[in-house]
Amino acid sequence: MLETYRRALDDLERGGRLRALAPRLGHDFSSNDYLALANSSELAGAVFEALDRAVPVGAGGSRLLRGNHLEHEALEEEAARFFGAQSALYFGGGFPANAALFATLPQKGDLILYDELIHASVHDGMSISRAERKSFLHNDLESLETALKAHRGKGCCWIAVESLYSMDGDLAPIHELMALADRYQAMLVVDEAHATGVLGPDGRGLSAKFEGAENVITLHTCGKALGASGGLLCLARPLRDFMINRARPFIYATAPSPLMAAVVRASLKLCQEQPERRERLDALVTFTGERLRKMELVPSGSQIQPVIVGTPECAVALAKSLQAKGYDIRAIRPPTVPEGTSRLRLAITLHVDEVILGRMLNDLAEALRP
Description:
Layout: H1 3-14, E1 27-28, H2 41-52, H3 70-83, E2 87-91, H4 94-104, E3 111-115, H5 120-127, E4 132-136, H6 141-151, E5 157-162, H7 174-183, E6 187-191, E7 216-221, E8 231-235, H8 237-246, H9 248-251, H10 258-273, H11 275-294, E9 304-310, H12 312-323, E10 327-328, E11 331-332, E12 342-347, H13 354-368
Parallel strand pairs: 1-10, 3-4, 3-5, 5-6, 6-7
Antiparallel strand pairs: 2-8, 7-8, 9-12, 11-12
């Protein structure tokens, strides 16, 4: 009965792609806790304060039943103000929020145009959408505009991009994408997951200037730089109401923890009150870039730095050699990244300082020497 699964696992192992859970070991170069908020005293204090106010740990039901809590509504109101959106809707995670969006909002006759490196959550949503879908070359405005022209006069086009790409660390040309969306009366959906809390004014993301426009939807995940969990869709109010009525992952899921909603509110406040966290992170990113240039590697310019080595076997071996020196660095392999681009994904966070960062880069340079 299980032989099919055993064979599949054996094939993955032979190809250097077998995944396994591993404990946290060594200095953090793999998490998305960029601002080191997850273990911060400020968020721990927010938990105790919320518990003192009798905020429950669990919601006990879906938002449309008894699961809706004042903390959910307070978070959504504060998030809409913070990001400059018309409204916000809180999900248990960024993945289900993204999947729900693309499964629900694009309609039959519409076309979803997605960057070829878009996140897996978008693919899951598109797989059950009634809209057609087509990829365009990564960050290639000409490729996108050709597809927009071809669909002109038909249904609505939905442009799906990430503002900061999670595996390459490069940025989307948001201003140019917005101009195309306006020109072709398209919807622009920006996944701000890795930019939220880090980039833009007060950490509001790269598309902060355009939040509030009716043809802009943003996803702000709460489990990365914000140090909590959940996902916030920021969108026009009619679209929010449509999601509440039609998005199955929202309607039929137990609501997110009200306690966690209170923590996210505290995270958004910290983004405004502690700009020094972003400044320190930016200094570490600059330091990393300078050192990488000396190693003849191209810096990404963000807190996500890929070191592409090619094969899964090379990536795993390189990661293990650095783990042995005390760094929590993981290998990223297909299908997460394209064939031939297996890599180390170095995440720069406030869990390290320049001394640790410099030592890791020295050890990386040594490991890369032929």
